[in-house]
Amino acid sequence: MASEGYVTYFLDGGKIAGKDGTQIKYFHGTVPAIVEYIYHFGIAYSKEEEAKKEGKVTQTFYDQVVAHINTNRIMTKENPTRALLYGAFGNYKLIIDLDSIKTEFSQKIAIDILNQFLEPSYLSGTAGESEVQDFLLNGATRFDKEIVYGLKDPEQQKTFASQAMLVGKFQQVGMPKFPSFHFDSIGNLGRAVSETKAILDDFETRILGRRSDKHQAGPAPNTFYAVANFYKEKYHTDFKDRLRNKVLEILNKDQGSDSYGHGALRSALDFLKSLEKKYDTFLTYFREARRYYEEMRRDLKDIDSEVEAFYAVSKQKKWGLRGDLRKKYKKLRKLQNQRKIQEILQDLVGNAEGTGIAQKNSEYILFIIAEIEKWINTFQKGRQFTEKANQDLRSVRNEKTNNFVCHRYLSSSGDTLETWLFELIKDSSKLRKAKDYKGAVHKELVEKEIAERLPSPSWAELLSGFSWVFNLREGNGELIYPDREEGELICAVKKGIPDWPEPTQWDDESVILKWNYQFTENYLKQSELDKIRLTAPDILLWLGEEPSDVVRVLEERSLPILEYDKRVHTDLREGNPHDTETHVTIIGDFSAPGREVQRWTTECQQIINKKGWTHYDGPANAISINQSIYNLAGPAIINLYATGKEYSRRLERKVPPPLHVFPGEKIARKYELEISNRFQKPIEELHPLVVSALEDELLVKNFAFGLVFDIIEKDTIFDDDTGDRKPILKISDVKLPPEHVEAILKLRIPPDNEAIQYAAAARTLHQAVLEKRKNVAKESYVDLLGEKTKAIVDQLEKGELSKTEAEISKVFLIILEKELESL
């Protein structure tokens, strides 16, 4: 595009949206205004393109820009004012920030769901103890009912551990029975004591068995150890199954209702802690009961020593065991057997190795407690990060609401409107009745129309995204979740909800940010918050604002962001037909989804039409206005004129420029002063394109020397459009536009798809200039510089160059003449 195809807009930030711009940070005022303007332009351009395809003629904001892109052409030598013409603009927007509202609402729903699972326990204190009692008596195993629950009082310790009680409490109807030891049924015990001992040993071993014996189904009798091991495995396995079922019962309580998950995790934890306390108390009592038993049965305390001593003495008798001595030995062996049986059964409950049923059960309770605590921590972490994300979003929203002066946000986080909307989404029955309304009578109808366009997600459905399961093996032997540990408590999630981070991942910000985004995004879709249909007119009507007031505010706060002296403009306008022109556009969707808001938008459109403003459709959640003004003379722009004088003052006195000065502006002002001195004329402002080129002063200098040394060559190429040959410039094989300013700009800011080749061309130019300046003979160099400077002066005197080309030629002249002076 030629230089004449540009419009230069000037904003000074002096006054923005009716406020003193000096008190407003540029990223809160000027920058959002520029972004909004580009956005307006983009919409207008797309409208224009659509219209062209349909063969329609339109009048849009884009048309107005096109109408003024040639205004810079008056900057010719015939223009007596020598004043570059600028444009300026201002804009203002009324917006309901729906995207942020939807995200915030989905975060709040996510937080409420996580909170529901973290509610206080309903099984604390006596409620938990009662639940444990019911579980031990009705829900657990016979072992828990007869033994654990049976020893609930210290007074029972003295009698609890007797053999008769234990055997009876272990055995279960329809299950294996412990074999009995009928010593009296033994017939011949032999004569020698060693023979008698061998017979009794064999009898006892056959019934007692070995510690490792496993129960075998079938008619063959099982050993005492085999039956004991059977019950040890059975009662622990059954306990685990029933405890898991009980925990899942608590966690899945009210599944499918709005109360699902309410306090479930903490209730499960309280139940388990009460149960563990019960087991801990039982094991303490049990240890005492064993001690009492030993005291009560002193006849068994030293029975092994007695048997051994009796046997040793009897072996010395010549005629072996006879009569009463045999009876006494059998009695001693019978008592010794009772002690062994008692120890086996007591060890079955609890032993020094910690492998008793009660000990293993207690150990498993602690495992489940750890699993529940892990999930409480997971839900707490999830809530913590979701709350932080919500806080961050609210901070950003507040930042925009309080600081973006060109925007007015029609609602803010937690205000009356958004609180009402959120409550209505969670419970549509909260729509207020007519008697609750204050102000306009029609507000009830307005709210009803808004409510009809809000989603009403089922809370029970949202909660159903979670379910609890223990990771066990299925019928095929495979784990439900093969990649997780066997027996682990899993909070399963529905499709759409991301898997929970591992406990070790909560410190990995990248993992958590991704999880949090997916977690809240799920509720955005599942609750249909992404389908909320609210328009800016809806909210303005809800707020009770009249169309005439809204239009007035839009007009007042969208005035161009520029201080402009109209009197100076009038003085400069002599002989110039161009006066300032203002164009106003409104972007907004006035299609009015409800009857009440339709009345409001109709009145608003009527006011806009009377003012002659252009209106075209835009996003429904905003009403935007843009005021563009064109044909502004540079000297009449107050701050531009003052800034130029300040640049000059600082450059002449060699004072450092202010930090906010753009490099191109500073460099341009330096050349403007030097050009003024060289040609003995008042200072002229360089064209913005020339200023942009001067952002890279080294490149401009290289370009000037490249022309001197013919590193930059002139050439022609075939023009497909005209069929003629057209001029170009070349550096090596890289083609450049024939205009010097355009060529420099292309090297400085190349198109994305050609960036590599243009960057290479700029490097080639730089290296070639260095080589030439280093190796050229002084006399030859002086001659080359002299010829080039004379050619530039001659060309300038002819007055045939465009403004930009004339200005860049003067910059080249200053550069080359300085080089001559230095030689």
Question: Can you walk me through this structure?
Answer:
- The protein has 823 residues and is an alpha+beta fold.
- Among the domains are: 120-294 and 331-355, no CATH class; 535-629, no CATH class; 696-749, no CATH class; 753-822.
- Helices cover 56% and strands 8% of the residues.
- The strands form 4 sheets. It has a 5-stranded mixed beta sheet with strand order 4-3-9-7-8, with helices on both faces. A 3-stranded antiparallel beta sheet has the order 10-11-12.
- The longest helix is centred in the middle third of the chain and has 47 residues, at 357-403.
Please state the overall shape, judged from the principal axes of the Cα atoms: elongated
Work out the radius of gyration: 47 Å
Q: Span between N and C termini?
A: 39 Å
Uncertain stretches of 5 or more adjacent residues? 1-5, 69-83, 433-441
Largest sheet: 5 strands, mixed
